[in-house]
Amino acid sequence: MQHQLLIGYDDRHTFLNRLSGSTKLLCFVGLSIIGMMTYDTRYLLAIMALSLVVFRFSKIKYRDVSFVLSVIVGFSVLNLVMVYVFAPHYGVSIYGTEHLLLGTSDHYFNLTVEQLFYEFNLLLKYTFAVPLALIFLMTTNPSEFAASLNKIGISYRISYSVAIALRYIPDVQADYRTISLAQQARGFEMSKKAHLLTRVRGGLQILLPLIFSSLDRIETISQAMELRRFGKGKKRSWYMAQRFKRNDYLALAIVAVLILIGIALFKVNGGRFWNPFKA
Amino acid sequence: MQKQSSSIRTVVATGIGAAVIFVLMKFVAIPTGVPNTQVNVAMGFLALLGAIFGPVAAGLAVFIGHALNDFVTYGSPWWTWVIVDGLIGFAFGLAHKRLNIQNGKLGTAKLVWFNIYQIVVNFIGWVLLAPTGDIIIYHEPANKVFIQGIVTWITDSISVAIIGTILLVLYARTRTKGGSLTKER
Fold first, then answer.
1. What does the pLDDT read at residue A192?
2. Which residue ranges traverse the bilayer (chain A) (predicted)?
């Protein structure tokens, strides 16, 4: 619990930091939606390569993200194993051919090239957005994030909710830790040594103060905001908002072209899958 | 005037609710053994949030909290489940009129009704909507996502039934009961 959980924003003085938050948000959302839809291996590999190149430029250090990366790898491997256990013939049914590597076709757990290829595609889909997401998280000031949301057309009340969430996550986390230590000082054993049932009860003893103090906090903050006349106007200006510059338009144009290529590939492939097994 | 202040409360409840859900999903989740499913304490809190602040706050709060949590844990949100969570939060919020927790009267009948309601809502969300979305959007094998969906349905229902019910009862006790004052003659 000691490691830093929220990946930190830091001004690293790169061109990525100078792009406006709205640009980065639009690029990330656009690319992740097209990547979610497509199963074209070439396209996914190209996007992955591109985002890794951009990641190099962002000057983010490996040790800052190593923990997150290990979680993502673990999650992907678990999912891939589960897909194989539940549907070892799924690749065959998608690509329509069967090239056996291990076992015979009447075994349940046989291994086909098609299955490996399908799972490789899945792995790409789980991971291709990770460099982009890390870039977005680590080069965008959290305060600017809400302004960006508002700029791309989300109502300022919802944007403000997101801003409040980002602002109070560290506070709630600190509360959680304080309450947990206080309860342990009172003798609630919560380490792995204790029984599961005692641990669950201990968990509840943390949960209740945390939730009730958060409810009080909601009252306090909403009264403070009401005194400052929040929500009286139709629009709202943002201190952290940035104007679009040349590079913003350039980045948006590049991503738009990439998305159009992705859509064109649906036509070329006659569907979402690229099938290398059909000659 | 009343309407205005309740809309500010919704904005704040969404934000703080999302922060609490984020922290609960991050720290207080008990894995079940099936990948990417866990007993989520956050769902119990969601029931309380919905009962107090209504559908919009609960739906958006869990949407934001879950998306942020996926973002920092897995790199990118698993959109189908995030959206389903948002819809479930919205559905929990729809119960707030009927529960009417603010007047402090929360009998067994209401609690039983709410628990049946939440099990049905979770069923529609996790067993019908989420796997269908996974199959259509992500093209994952059907039996894998249905197993994940069914496990999540069971664990989330249990989480709401135990933690949600405890929270609702305790919260109702802190409210002044409607009609508890009598006029002296």
1. 66
2. 21-37, 43-58, 65-87, 116-137, 249-268
- State the DSSP code for A8: P
> A133 to each of A24, B122, B141, how far by Cα in Å?
10, 30, 26
Q: Do B68 and A83 touch (CB under 8 A)?
A: no
Please write the tens of the pLDDT for every residue from B98-146. Answer: 888 887 778 888 899 999 999 999 999 989 898 888 888 878 888 888 8
Q: Where are the domains of chain A?
A: 17-141+243-279, 155-239
Res B29: pLDDT: 63
Cβ-Cβ pairs closer than 8 A, A with B, add up to 166
- The residue assigned the tokens 């602040």 is B53
Give the domain ranges of chain B: 2-174
CB B101 within 8 A of CB B58: no
ipTM: 0.84
The shortest CB-CB distance from B9 to any of A130, A212, A218 is to A218
CB count within 10 Å of CB A10 equals 14
Tokens of B50: 């919905």
pTM of the predicted model over 0.95: no
Put simply, whether B170 touches A (Cβ < 8 Å) is yes
Interface test with B, best of A80, A128, A161, A229 (most B CBs within 10 A): A161
CA distances from B38 to B34, B142, B152, B154 (A): 8, 20, 7, 10
Mutate: best of A28, A32, A168, partner B, most B CBs <10 A: A168
Reading the block at residue B152, the tokens are 């999540």
Residue A91 contacts residue A111 (beta carbons within 8 Å): no
Higher pLDDT, residue B15 or A279: B15
For B12-50, how does the pLDDT look when each residue is reduced to its tens digit (9 = 90+)?
999 999 999 988 887 766 666 666 666 778 888 999 999
C-alpha–C-alpha distance, residues A172 and A2, integer Å:
16
